[in-house]
Amino acid sequence: MTTPLKIDGLVPDALAPKRFRIFLTDFDLPVDIGFHDFEVGTPQRLLVSVEVLVEPEAFASEDTQAAAWNYDFLRTEIRRMTTGRRFNLQETLVREIYDLIVARKGVQGLKVSARKPDVYPDCAGVGVEISSF
Question: What is the CATH number of the domain that holds 85?
Fold first, then answer.
């Protein structure tokens, strides 16, 4: 196995990474969500996106599973939160996802959004977002 070439000292300070981001985009889930009579008990498509800014030390610096920030956690926990549960508001679900992730080690910033893509035929979606940035 060949050792990768190190470029220490060759990258100018102006080009050094300033932001480390992990994301999950448009996770497509059936969710029992909404407060209108026609929505209750009828799961709808919900697209959930998460953007996590992580501290440089928490972003993998070597090519090993142990070094990785586990984004499988995002999918698993969001699916767990929505399975077999009903929500009246997207705001409630987004806030719960936010609270779960923001407390994790290495999180420097967080944005969570959800949108219903099938509500209006002339819109890509209607939704909510909360963010620390």
Answer: 3.30.1130.10
